[in-house]
Amino acid sequence: MRMPRPRKRNRDRKRLPAPAAPRWTDGLSDLSIAGDPLAFPHLARTDLPAHPTTLGGYARLVREIAADRARWEPLVRYDALTRWYARLETGPGYEVWLLSWLPGQSSGFHDHGRSSGVMTVVRGELSERSLTAGGEGSRALAAGGLRVLSPGYLHEMVNASLEPAVSVHLYTPGLVEMNQYPAAATAPERHRVH
Ligand SMILES: [Fe+2]
């Protein structure tokens, strides 16, 4: 008569080796150096506004800044000798500029290199002349007016009114060059702006 073989209990089974810890080429990792960022609530905030990544998002941001006067009004300066501007904000892949225009001040004909832009007038009124394949155009931009500027768009902004004007401009990617043109567009003269 065959006797039943005793069943093998778990503890009798051969244990598999524990998986090896990941080996880093330099022996260090972000976690080993800084710890788990999710363990620190102030490093994992979720209440911060998301940065825009689309043209619609950039236009929305420009409108938000324009409506929040405390965000830009205390910073405005006027310069009788030259058009005044200052960088207001930066974000991943974009930057926002604040510009002031005394009566008669003008940008001259220019484009924005490979940057796209969104601009709005927040005080006073500006006049724009543009030059496209369809010919020359002109328009008045009152406070609240919004323009979207494509890469290579050629235009001139001027304060043709008798009152100071202020505008907010967003460029993406950040503005690294403006090609200045004589009044009638010919070969551009390249100027680094910062
Ligand atoms: Fe421009």
From TrEMBL:
It comes from the Bacteria. GO terms for molecular function: ferrous iron binding; oxidoreductase activity, acting on single donors with incorporation of molecular oxygen, incorporation of two atoms of oxygen. Gene3D superfamilies: Jelly Rolls (2.60.120.10). Residues 1-23 are annotated as: Disordered. Keywords: Dioxygenase, Iron, Metal-binding, Oxidoreductase. SUPFAM superfamilies: RmlC-like cupins (SSF51182). InterPro entries: CDO_1 (IPR010300), RmlC-like_jellyroll (IPR014710), RmlC_Cupin_sf (IPR011051). It holds the Pfam family CDO_I. Residues 1-16 have a biased composition (Basic residues). Fe cation binds at H110, H112, H155. Belongs to the cysteine dioxygenase family. This is Cysteine dioxygenase type I.
